[in-house]
């Protein structure tokens, strides 16, 4: 049995804690609205395609993997952040946003499969050789033709999800209270 003693000071302290915690908040982490590639393409759209796959792009579930792996510890981390910040919800959620954003970046960095196709590697080489290259259907066709002819891409990263690192560097968070 727990016995609570404290009278008016206890009531005042509990009222203050309740007031601070009563300000519900939310933290959004990921590819926020407005995050775009230099050509105007939505980073969230590209991330979703990478996460779930598309017609010729295999699924690379970096976001779901991170959530499955890390989310069981988020409740305890939030409790510690609230304690550390004297129950200030804004500061605690800011800590959470920074931490989860870091976990998401790490998940992208750790994702190595499935490996990139030879055509994707060729496209990376073509873009390296011509930084102004616009990748479209004709460019992909040219890359496929080169691969079919036996040409292999050299000197390019084979790492999935981190070609220019724009998606990785676009991870952000926002706290709303």
Annotate the secondary structure layout.
Layout: H1 7-21, E1 26-30, H2 43-52, H3 62-70, H4 74-84, H5 89-110, H6 118-129, H7 137-148, H8 166-169, E2 172-176
Helix pairs in contact: 3-5, 4-5, 6-7
Order of helices and strands: HEHHHHHHHE
What is the C-alpha radius of gyration, as a whole number of Å?
23 Å
Count of runs of 4 or more consecutive helical residues: 8
Strand order of the largest sheet: 1-2
Helix content, binned percent: 40-55%
Description:
By secondary structure, the chain is mostly helical. It has 2 domains: 111 residues, no CATH class; 42 residues. It is built from 8 helices and 2 strands. The longest helix has 22 residues.
What is the structure about, briefly put?
The protein has 177 residues and is mostly helical. It is 54% helix and 6% strand.
Annotation keywords:
single chain, 177 residues, mainly alpha, 8 helices, elongated
């Amino acid at each position: 049995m727990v016995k609570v003693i404290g009278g008016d000071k206890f009531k005042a302290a509990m009222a203050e804690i309740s007031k601070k915690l009563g300000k519900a908040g939310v933290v959004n982490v990921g590819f926020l609205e407005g995050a775009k590639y230099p050509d105007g393409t939505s980073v969230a759209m590209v991330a979703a395609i990478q996460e779930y796959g598309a017609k010729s792009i295999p699924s690379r579930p970096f976001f779901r993997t991170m959530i499955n792996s890390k989310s069981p510890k988020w409740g305890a981390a939030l409790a510690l952040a609230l304690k550390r910040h004297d129950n200030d919800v804004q500061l605690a959620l800011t800590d959470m946003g920074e931490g989860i954003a870091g976990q998401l970046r790490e998940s992208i960095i750790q994702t190595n499969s499935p490996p990139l196709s030879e055509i994707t590697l060729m496209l990376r080489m073509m873009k390296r050789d011509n930084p102004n290259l616009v990748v479209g259907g004709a460019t992909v066709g040219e890359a496929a033709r080169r691969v079919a002819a036996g040409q292999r891409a050299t000197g390019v990263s084979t790492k999935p999800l981190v070609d220019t690192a724009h998606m990785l560097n676009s991870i952000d968070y926002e706290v709303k209270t």
